[in-house]
Structure prediction request, 560 residues.
Amino acid sequence: MRRSHSSPCCKLFACDEHTPWVRLPRSVTFSSGHKLKRKFKLLIGAICRSLLKAERHTATVAFGALCLTASPALLADTLIINARIIDGTGSGAVVGSVRLKDDRITAVGELTSNESDDVIDAGGLVLAPGFIDTHSHSDRLILTERDALAKIAQGITTAVVGQDGDAPHPLADFFGALEATPSKVNIAAYAGHNTLRDEVMGADFRRAANDDEIKAMAALLEGELAAGALGLSTGLEYEPGIHSETREVVQLAQLTADAGGRYISHIRSEDRWFDDALEEIIQIGRATGMPVQISHLKLAMASQWGRAPWVIERLNAARQEGIDLTADIYPYTYWQSHMMVLLPERDPLDLDAIDFVMAELAPPDGIIFTHFPAEPDYVGMTLTEVAAARKQRPAEAFSALAQMSIAHEDATGEMGDMIIGTSMRDDDIAAFIAWPHANICTDGSLRDRHPRGAGSFPRVLARYVREQSVLSLESAIHHMTGLSAQHMGFVERGVIAPGMMADLVLLNPDTVTDLATTSEPFTPSKGIHSVWVAGQRVLHEGAVSEAFPGRVIRRDSVQP
Prediction:
């Protein structure tokens, strides 16, 4: 089309004096409502034609004022009506409406729609704050799998990464990349102790760090905290953290506490020495005065099963002492990790130790290989099946495969194995989930072979709310939202209230459930109707949008 004039609006909207409506730039989007979109296009077309007939100066000034008000987010609010609102505080549900403007909730209650509103009828479904995954490994793929379907399909709007002592480094670069190419979910991160230890000690990590090495780790930690890390995470059952002394961890934790940060830990043992590991994190909380959280609290040993009441009693005693001690939980009786984690001495030739593993930690038919590049055909098989194929005892097969995994890692530098191990009992999990100071997590990545990555939050709602009545629906959502926000220090998320970020999930409490399994781990959950992040709908009836509104949440925006 040939243009006789060139005004600011013509350059932006591609129109001329004969244009009845305009082609909108791709940056101008509408969450719904074709009528609203057409009205907007007609309005801009009329203004453009008028401007072209006016004096250039006047037109420029007029359009300059228009540009300040013409974005759809400013022309129309989103109004969600007929919702059963569960606000994340633990309070009972109320029927009402929620108004969104830009990235915020502006009103909650009995609201009247305006002509320009983008009205969404919730149809009596539950509207809750977006779920907060307080222990996530999404940092491994979030820069490439920006849709984060495994998260949003179960209602998660915020993921906290940098867990188990393993974090992107430096965090400033990771955050910068996320801001340049945002995802559909918000991301916060801890600094990883194992990452810092590896940077300082390299291959010489199988020992206690000396004072100079601790100072070097502290210097790196200061940089991560300055970049916005929420605090310090440890993975004390993993290398290289397993070789650290408590004094090393306390010194780094104290630095974190002095900066207003938090501490989260995969404790030193979840089985043989669980009691000692529990006392260590209590000691760290006592020494530093900072909030401390146990990652994926579990009793992963047969002789420990049934001790959840004692554990909760000990946790409560620590809290009564004044220690801000919390925990996160995922709702499965099986975990996912590496073979050698089951052998604290890291000796794959110790068949007695492996026999102990088979008897107490994970039976052969409860160990499933989810990653084994040295022999890919083993993926999806149990250890029982692999042992039968190799004509070996399960302990002998475990030993042989562990050696193959180590050899692969030494030769390629790549991860040599990943297994799922059945080690927990459901009544212990239910007790931990019901503890008033426990929040919900996935402990999963965006492409996790463990079903927790795609199913944790709906599984809690289906299994522990609807089927077992361990929690009420309002209480469960509180554990997933407001309580999680409190434990992470998030002040703008986790509750439906005016002024809060518009991170929301619309779900059907009667049908929401997890569908992921160990054989089909990527299957999305059902019952999640819609998800909003920063006021933009990113999921609607299983379909993802083109919006990427996820934000980086730095420590300077949270509460110590």
Observations:
- Confidence is low (pLDDT under 50) at residues 1-75.
- The two ends are 58 Å apart (CA to CA).
